[in-house]
Design a protein that fits this description.
The protein has 7 helices and 6 strands. With about 200 residues, the chain is α/β, with parallel strands linked by helices. It has one domain: Rossmann fold, CATH 3.40.50.1240. The chain is globular and about 50 Å long.
């Protein structure tokens, strides 16, 4: 049976606006982030959703709660959706990161290990081998909504089979990717879509 995944990044936070790395630091949505989450919820009210999973971090959880409310669905915490640990980057401004780590390549796990960050390899392997198959087995034939974060969403998309280059692509706040899996065959229906947001949206990590 065909199982669909609607995966999105949380709304904006003050640290996103400042271009400050968050990682596992629990920073809430700001006023614009709440507005973005409402726009996302309105967009997804036209989609069929059967189950809603979220990262435990408040910015992702609140984003999902606004989506789930319009579908009258409960929200379930899934630890594997928590953002990746960004090690020495956490709390640092983009300007500081460029000075301190000018050659950093976010898709290079050797660079990430040197900065005490979670690597893509470890997460992609876990998501591909454990998380995604478990969700498909539990919700076969349903539409599964996942609220997560920029870097963890990149890892998820590569785990589904999207190109490795996605590890280096910053996903926008409240961007949606929709994927179907039918008898093991993955298809991308749309990717990094923010057409539901207006031009006041500000992006950041």
């Amino acid at each position: 049976m065909k199982t669909e995944f609607i995966i999105f990044r949380h709304g904006q936070t003050d640290w996103n606006q400042e271009h400050r790395s968050m990682g596992t630091t629990d920073i809430p949505l700001n006023r614009l982030g709440k507005q973005q989450a409402e726009m996302l919820a309105t967009r997804l009210s036209r989609e069929r959703l059967d189950v809603c999973y979220t990262s435990p971090l408040s910015r992702a959880k609140e984003t999902m709660e606004r989506v789930a409310r319009l579908h009258h669905l409960p929200v379930t915490i899934l630890e594997d959706l928590r953002e990746m640990n960004l090690g020495l980057f956490e709390g640092k401004l983009k300007s500081d990161r460029l000075i301190l780590f000018p050659d950093f390549d976010p898709g290079n796990d050797k660079h990430r290990r040197r900065l005490r960050m979670d690597t893509f390899a470890q997460w992609i392997s876990n998501l591909k081998t454990n998380t995604i198959p478990a969700l498909i087995q539990k919700h076969d034939g349903q539409t599964i909504a996942l609220s997560t974060h920029d870097q963890k969403m990149r890892a998820l998309l590569v785990a589904f089979g999207m190109p490795e280059e996605i590890k280096r692509l910053v996903l926008k706040n409240c961007a949606i990717t929709k994927i179907s899996v039918d008898n093991g065959v993955m298809a991308v229906i749309f990717h990094n879509d923010t057409s539901h947001l207006d031009n006041t949206t500000i992006h950041g990590r």
